[in-house]
Design goal:
2 domains; 7 strands
């Protein structure tokens, strides 16, 4: 039973790590762009462009390799943009294309208000049930009885419940 629980935990950790991938690719006009959300860069294979999203996603600033910039502000009815004096759309990829590359991921995964405190608490409770099922059992049921010990089945179900709670928290976080 312990090997089964360890296997489930390893499988969950691998799936969580896969979900936390910080890079994704988008193809536009036959060119594959790689977006790295950790370093906030977009690469077309030849050049790397730095981007900054500010104002809760309402403004995107792109800095080109030569230092020129392109910006776009989002408003409820659309948006407007501009560029620095040294911006040359013929030299590098057009700013509108880079904006659409960034919007690809957000269009597929609309942002929502998530209760991160609830998710954090669920993960902590789930980990506690998986790592220390005896203390979890004792706190929930054991203190009711004098000199009581949990059965192996009770401890196994506590661990399984912990795994289920962690899975639910991860689903809430990424959906």
């Amino acid at each position: 039973m312990k090997k089964f629980c360890v296997g489930i935990i390893c499988l969950m950790l691998i799936s969580v790590l896969m979900c936390l991938a910080s890079t994704y690719t988008v193809t536009r006009n036959g060119i594959e762009y790689t977006v790295d959300t950790d370093s906030m860069t977009i690469s077309d294979g030849t050049n790397t462009y730095q981007y900054i999203i500010s104002g809760e996603g309402s403004e995107i600033n792109i800095t080109y390799p030569d230092g020129s910039t392109y910006w776009w502000k989002v408003s409820p009815g659309g948006g407007w943009g501009g560029w620095s004096d040294d911006y040359d759309p013929e030299k590098y990829v057009d700013g509108d294309v880079l904006i659409s590359v960034l919007e690809e991921k957000t269009a597929k995964q609309p942002s929502s208000d998530k209760n991160f405190l609830l998710i954090f608490i669920l993960i902590i409770i789930g980990l506690w049930n998986v790592i220390s099922p005896y203390s979890s059992w004792y706190l929930s049921r054991g203190w009711h009885y004098k000199d009581a010990e949990p059965s192996e089945a009770s401890l196994a179900f506590t661990r399984i419940g912990g795994v289920i709670v962690i899975i639910i928290a991860v689903i809430i976080l990424f959906v």
